[in-house]
């Protein structure tokens, strides 16, 4: 199975991040589901991730990665210099997650919020699981 990224479907920043990933990933490696959707909630439950998690979740090879671990592991599959971001996995997790949490905490304030989850274009619709 391909890797799955769960994202906050009502967050503008998260939706833009998904579009960013799709444009830069190699070999259509990722599938996507919103945290709010049935598939997202089912995957959270299956992998015993608390349902209140509201950040990117990466499920890859039956492993769950949260926060900065998810973001930096996603970078490994992007084209060009974005791959190099994964080097920050050597930074201690508490430091990485503090930066990640600061961005996540303010994402609605800086980027806004939608009333509903994003609707993918027909070209990428098959990549979305819910």
UniProtKB/TrEMBL annotation:
GO terms for molecular function: protein-disulfide reductase activity. It comes from the Bacteria. Transmembrane segments: none annotated. InterPro entries: DCC1-like (IPR007263), DCC_oxidoreductase (IPR052927). This is Thiol-disulfide oxidoreductase.
């Amino acid at each position: 199975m391909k890797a799955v990224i769960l994202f906050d479907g009502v967050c503008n920043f998260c939706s833009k991040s998904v579009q960013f990933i799709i444009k830069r990933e190699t070999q259509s490696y990722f599938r996507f589901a919103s945290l709010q959707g049935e598939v997202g909630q089912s995957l959270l439950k299956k992998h015993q991730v608390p349902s209140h998690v509201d950040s990117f979740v990466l499920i890859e090879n039956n492993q769950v990665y949260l926060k900065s671990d998810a973001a930096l592991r996603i970078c490994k599959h992007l084209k060009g210099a974005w791959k190099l971001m994964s080097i920050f996995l050597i930074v201690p997790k508490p430091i990485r997650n503090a930066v990640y949490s600061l961005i996540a905490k303010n994402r609605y304030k800086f980027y806004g919020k939608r009333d509903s989850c994003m609707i993918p274009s027909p070209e990428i619709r098959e990549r979305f699981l819910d």
